[in-house]
Amino acid sequence: MAKASQDGTDRTDQVLQGLHQLVEAGRVAEVEAVLTTLIESEPASDPTVEDRETRSYAEGMRDGIALARRIGETQGDQG
């Protein structure tokens, strides 16, 4: 069971690292697509702690991107 937990943690770390690389590259549309896939995907069995943490992180990151986009649009209207 510890091996499965470690594999989940490794997968989560890989996903997060990939997301951060996309953000740094300015590929926001791709980040949103990955986040949506993570959020909407259903685990084959009961979600692990790592699955729930990844989903929660993805939801927060997606919400942050949406908020930043709205702020940018609002500021663009003022300028």
Strand tally is 0
- Please tell me how large the radius of gyration is: 15 Å
Discrete helix count: 3
Total tally of structural domains:
1
- Global morphology: elongated
Strand residue percentage: under 5%
Helical amount: over 70%
User: What structural category do the secondary elements indicate?
Assistant: mainly alpha
Please give a handful of descriptors for the protein shown.
84% helix, 3 helices, 79 residues, elongated, mainly alpha
How would you briefly describe this protein structure?
The chain contains three helices and no strands. By secondary structure, it is mostly helical. The chain has one domain.
Can you characterise this structure?
This protein has helices spanning 2-24, 28-40, 49-78. It has 79 residues and is mainly alpha-helical. It has one domain (2-78). The longest helix has 30 residues, at 49-78. The chain is elongated, with a radius of gyration of 15 Å. The termini are far apart.
